[in-house]
Design brief:
- By secondary structure, the chain is an alpha/beta fold.
- It contains seven helices and twelve strands.
- The N and C termini lie far apart (about 35 Å).
């Protein structure tokens, strides 16, 4: 993603982007049930690095598998590029976690822009202090192995009922998470920023007593 495109998208809210995407007949772009972990969570903009989970199966999976250095979740933590957003397809499962504080600190240290999941996270109080922007469905104490296992990275996934392809652009703010297809990210960035300027001007006039029209 070009630096100018990133800067323009950083200026644009998720509300504005959903409008711009709707104008281009893209309606399935806003993640359902995915919210900032805390009210102070910072907005994020960055290309998606994807991680997919599947249901746990007792004859195949174990705690030892989870601690293996080559497990996909560990690889995702170490391979997600700086400036990217790690997006985990957690199947909407809110009863176990896909991220804890140690892994969050590692992502932050590596320069990753943020973490997004339609599942839960653990160590939520510590995560709020880690400095890594996190968007998820909530908090849960059990580890991921209580419900599913990571199976692969950098493949198309579903997160919050939205299709996410590697390198799609993730934009997240207080209203939630929007996925901007990578093929139109540059095209949409300028009109989105212009819409922000126009709406700021309109809001100023309305506050001064002018009618909406």
């Amino acid at each position: 993603m070009r630096s100018r495109t990133r800067a323009l998208l950083q200026k644009s809210s998720t509300a504005t982007l959903t409008t711009q995407l709707h104008k281009r007949n893209i309606r399935s772009c806003y993640m359902s049930g995915v919210r900032p972990l805390t009210p102070s969570t910072q907005p994020i903009v960055g290309p998606a690095y994807t991680l997919r989970y599947i249901p746990y199966r007792e004859d195949h999976d174990s705690l030892e598998n989870l601690s293996n250095e080559t497990t996909p979740s560990r690889l995702a933590i170490e391979n997600c590029p700086p400036g990217s957003v790690l997006v985990a397809d957690a199947r909407g499962l809110s009863t176990c976690a896909t991220l804890g504080d140690i892994l969050a600190h590692r992502l932050k240290a590596r320069g990753v822009a943020g973490f997004v999941s339609d599942g839960a996270v653990r160590d939520s109080a510590a995560l709020g202090q880690a400095g890594l922007p996190i968007y998820c469905s909530g908090a849960a104490a059990p580890a991921s192995l209580n419900g599913h296992i990571p199976i692969e990275t950098q493949v198309p996934i579903a997160c919050g009922e939205v299709a996410v392809y590697p390198d799609d652009i993730v934009v997240a703010d207080a209203d939630g998470v929007v996925i901007v297809p990578k093929s139109i990210a540059e095209e949409i960035s300028q009109p989105a920023a212009e819409q922000e300027d126009i709406e700021e001007f309109i809001a100023l006039l309305v506050r001064q007593g002018h009618p909406i029209a």
